[in-house]
Amino acid sequence: MFEVTVCDHMMVAHSLRGVVFGPAQALHGATYVVEAAFARDGLDDDGIVLDIGRASEALHAVLSDLTYRNLDEVEFLAGTNTTTEVLARAIADRLAGRIADGSLGVGSGDLARIRVTLRESPVAWASYERAP
Amino acid sequence: MFEVTVCDHMMVAHSLRGVVFGPAQALHGATYVVEAAFARDGLDDDGIVLDIGRASEALHAVLSDLTYRNLDEVEFLAGTNTTTEVLARAIADRLAGRIADGSLGVGSGDLARIRVTLRESPVAWASYERAP
Amino acid sequence: MFEVTVCDHMMVAHSLRGVVFGPAQALHGATYVVEAAFARDGLDDDGIVLDIGRASEALHAVLSDLTYRNLDEVEFLAGTNTTTEVLARAIADRLAGRIADGSLGVGSGDLARIRVTLRESPVAWASYERAP
Amino acid sequence: MFEVTVCDHMMVAHSLRGVVFGPAQALHGATYVVEAAFARDGLDDDGIVLDIGRASEALHAVLSDLTYRNLDEVEFLAGTNTTTEVLARAIADRLAGRIADGSLGVGSGDLARIRVTLRESPVAWASYERAP
Amino acid sequence: MFEVTVCDHMMVAHSLRGVVFGPAQALHGATYVVEAAFARDGLDDDGIVLDIGRASEALHAVLSDLTYRNLDEVEFLAGTNTTTEVLARAIADRLAGRIADGSLGVGSGDLARIRVTLRESPVAWASYERAP
Amino acid sequence: MFEVTVCDHMMVAHSLRGVVFGPAQALHGATYVVEAAFARDGLDDDGIVLDIGRASEALHAVLSDLTYRNLDEVEFLAGTNTTTEVLARAIADRLAGRIADGSLGVGSGDLARIRVTLRESPVAWASYERAP
Fold first, then answer.
1. What are the start-end ranges of the H helices in chain D?
2. Closest residue of A to D130, CA-based?
3. Cα(F55)–Cα(D103) distance, integer angstroms
4. Rg (CA), chain A
5. What are the chain E neighbours of F48 within 8 Å (beta carbons)?
6. Which of residues 9-38 of E touch F (CB under 8 A)?
7. Fewer CB in 10 Å around end: N or C, chain F?
8. What global pTM score does this model have?
9. Do E127 and F52 touch (CB under 8 A)?
10. What is the complex's ipTM, to 2 decimals?
């Protein structure tokens, strides 16, 4: 099994709903370092899992809808609690959509797994993995 | 599958028994950067794997029994060779105990996997994973 | 010359005023990894620049007034543009105040320099240094 | 499951064949930080997955055939496109060979998995995992 | 004194002339992680040392002339030994040129110092600092 | 001004004398990641500050006298409190001795500064700088 990972980051504000979040219920923010990993059983004729340039662009495009924003006001996240876990899933789902529409130049059927990791601080991070 | 990781560290002395360890048979020490990862198939009603604050506290409590000590004299490690692998398992087992007793606010049945990684230097680390 | 550095982090929301900031004029956020460095010509009788435990506590206390908040509403920052540079200075000034009031157990006259660095992403950081 | 990882690096020149590689079709180079991970269900009598010293030496020996070279002229890579994925597999295969010949002091049958990760920049890396 | 740093990277091939370089006399390569730091006594009216966006673009533009190339064939480096130190100076000099021509929106007279650091591996790096 | 840095690590046990050290008065240990930086106004005829290979060997040799040991029993440290600051100075002094005896192939008069940094955990480090 091969896996290729590309990395980018976003800087957002948000607040979390639920007493479990303590002080993070107030409006605050985070720099999320975001890693997107794409796994595949074999390699294509060029010897790669996928075009790393297109993967980087896809990740950057997905994060462009979020960075420098207050996530409490982002429409496609409305009604969700934007925890690190939920954001990891939202980003993975959007990347899966871009794979499905051909943007990454590799078919969903070629890949075995997508995993998105969000690092919110040096001491805490979360990831979500799904079929492509 | 979701996974949340929290990170802390401990500074300990110890010696290892066995010719395979060469100079590490002498009393020496290490800063272990310790990552504890908790995996879960879905999220709870707050949109999280578990309360990251309680997970951090649990990890810190487990490490508090070890840090600033000579592991050769720690009772619950007596009779073991405190390799990085063995320490990863000991810490994972103690975290599993804290999950079982309710300290983390999430049941053992809710989680799919615990993994503990100990980084002993920039060029060597070990991990242990188990059912919760 | 000796220098001791302690490190912590904070997670904040804020917005910046001025066209130069482009999209960062909108409310967004950041995880700032904060390093506080204390320089001294010689060492005290214990062989240290200062008590690293007290330095860590002082830095944590200073960051506690900022973390999990919207900096646009923090009173002592009112009227300032909370750029990374301005925040580095604000934190350094507050640490200098704590040195002056004896909280760190070392006198201002003993130290040669304070430097505070804020890392806002893997590709950008800023620092401010001043006399203690 | 236990896993032990050792880390080293190599500095190489190479060029890639295929329009998908864009500017990387020209002769350029990379520092690859290389992590080799060895997984095992249980521990041996010394409480380890394998001798970390021998694992480090084996990885260093494998990288010694590549570092400070132009990979376009390395015989055992002839006819391959030396992408990060292909290099990860080549290194993993060579490590598997060294396990099979007894160099690491642990049998192939004892291990559950080998995984080699090559970090080519702060924002891109690839890994390959196989049976030992 | 304030200092702002931006970071990028480049992937190059090159060879070094001189017996002191041992195996690095052969054509090989490196990923250089490049940090460019700009120091200034005070802040401008926006509360910044300089526009971090323009600084990042300037650094990226300077590195664009080098990345994915064989430095042995780069015209403006002809006749130099492209050691890490020499490359740090070349990049700093080019950044100083862009400050002088107004590309960064800050005058040479406003800045106190430029420092460029090139990290060639996890265990070796070099920097060069000069007046702007 | 140029500066070249090489990096290595050591794993030691020790105890500290003085109530200020709290739990660190007990025998414990640390992995110290050690950076040795050498500054020089200009470059030699090869375009370098010094031979990075010899600098790495010198640092490794100095650390070899300390790693895998209990510093409380190291003769040349007897009577000192082996704080991070004191260890940074001891290592810098030993490197200065090796420069003076010609081991690094560069004269003391050629260099402007030596600085040794010891990272004891992700959140604390200390450095010492001196004339060569």
1. 52-64, 84-100
2. A1
3. 31
4. 15
5. 20, 83, 85
6. 17-18, 20-22
7. N
8. 0.98
9. no
10. 0.96
